Fold this sequence. Notes:
single chain, 8 helices, two-stranded antiparallel ribbon, globular, disordered N terminus, 8-stranded mixed sheet
Amino acid sequence: xxxxxxxxxxxxxxxxxxxxxxxxxxxxxxxxxxxxxxxxxxxxxxxxxxxxxxxxxxxxxxxxxxxxxxxxxxxxxxxxxxxxxxxxxxxxxxxxxxxxxxxxxxxxxxxxxxxxxxxxxxxxxxxxxxxxxxxxxxxxxxxxxxxxxxxxxxxxxxxxxxxxxxxxxxxxxxxxxxxxxxxxxxxxxxxxxxxxxxxxxxxxxxxxxxxxxxxxxxxxxxxxxxxx
Length: 228
């Protein structure tokens, strides 16, 4: 199980759940059916099978063991190549609805979703596509690492609007640097940032770095879950 890092964490024991009466009846919470949130006072339930399907896909397709250097410069024996899952049809089919469920449970109602290219792009597109089947369609966008040097010179591409309410997307959050770079670009437009949604939390201080800047992060799963 994840280490208890905030009051948001519940251990999933039946006794505790029964006492809290926290979850809707159609959601069957178990120890691995939570979204782990930080800088908040709640955990979010999710349909167990969907989350487990995502975790199994990540374990099968994205988790690699060996000797790696992370973007942070640190060495690690585990690398999570999330794009092998987020760009796969089965991964996108799960990630889109699962992310919409997470944002709805947090009462986040964005107009658009996106983050720093390239990791955020397939996740944002999966969410946007899944939203078309519901009552509220979300637009996807991408944030360039550098402004475009020709044409419009845009830093943010896609149907993004400066008055949008935005959820910033990340695939694997490590130090939080990529999410913060996207946040800075989005904030300069005047858009309202509701929070950050990540697929995997590597537990390397990224969520805490974002919290220090005042942004709540919602991670669908963690490296601990994938290595358990």
